[in-house]
Request: fold
Amino acid sequence: MLLAPRRSTLAALVGAVVASALALVVPGAAPAVSAEDPPPVIAPAPLPAFYDVPDPLPVGQPGDLIRDETVAAEGLHGTLHRVMYHSRSIRGADIAVTGLVVVPDGPAPAGGWPVMSWAHGTTGVADSCAPSLDASGSIGFANSFLDDGWVVVATDYEGLGTPGRHPYIVGDSEARGVIDNVRAAAALGVDISGDYVVWGHSQGGHAALFALHDAASWAPELHLLGVVAGAPPSQLDVVYDYLVDSPYKYYLLMVGAAINAAYGDEAAPLSDVMNQKGEDLIHLVDEGCTGALSDAADDIDVRDLLVTQPDGTLNPFSNPTWGPLIAAQDAQNFTEPADAPLLIIHGGDDEQIPNVSSVLLADHLCGIGQDVERWSYPGQSHAGVIGPSFDDMLSWMDLRRSGQEVTLLPGGDVDRTVCSAGQMVDGGGQVPPPTTPPTTEPTTTPVGPGGTAPGATPIAGRPGYTG
Reply:
């Protein structure tokens, strides 16, 4: 059975999705520095008292509540709760993580609410980059799910708003924050069914992939219905070459600081990949969000901060200690499929995460038996793909909730491929080139009307998302 895509009247809300997910206004910009300058010391703004983690931390299981508060949110079609809950670091420590739980107005349906767990994009590593500090920019995005009958939860991830550096792009850490926030909704007393979906974009797409990978073992009492990974980073072995001369070169500082924080100085010594200049500047990641870090790194040549590896390159992936740790964060290295289906969404002209990377990723996951579908939108940017895909993505989630055996053909200008017998195939059953991103019009006509949402106007918010 084929289902035509719906075209809702929520165009303004779709605009809010783009704005809240990828707004570029970030407070606390830092001055630009060079590798030769003495590192500046910038005092981060104090966080509200809610974010003070009890010391000692009370004993708790992942998802148990530490504290919660209700937050006023004008225009929200539900009740917004800020929560602090237990999770676990990848080294097994009991940690506190913060996030949000948003509950629709009205009574829960029979059996309880399903949950959509949102995994946010890159905000930074500093505590001030925790999205739950200011949820006002996400009201329109949340309302579209609330009106559709979903509880929405949104983790800050480990280390954003809570002690310790955020383990940026450390997949198991991200996944635990995403999944344990669903448990926190139940601990809050929300009547949830145990069914949930995960949606994330960019860093959040990466987190969503690892939630897919970890869900069955980490939270067997919950039922993952499906995962949507938008523009997920993968092919991490070549990310250095892509980023080193790009406007996003500061991601390399974030990844270095984060993997060191996650695995510790013994397992991931910074001196294996960074020289003294690099180690002297690594603190910049703790002092501002992505906009500030971008400004601070503007005049830095990242090559000046790195040490030469055994293969003669500066690529940290070539280091015998760091290479396996980086590889462990790449869904390209998954070896077993998950039970839940996966939808990958990617803009054809993504300027941050090359479109071809998700072609390769989908090919690999399909080859190991994963139920995977990929929607690529020609001409759409990293952020721009969210609007035209949003309505159909929500319909895809609804089908997972309903359990219907229905094929959804997304509307508009989109190249849809699906996994069949271990290969990604297009609507006409042809095997697309595995290493070439889509560059032409779709060869099949989607069922239903096309159309895209109007572009969003970024709104001021704390923090801003870049990837």
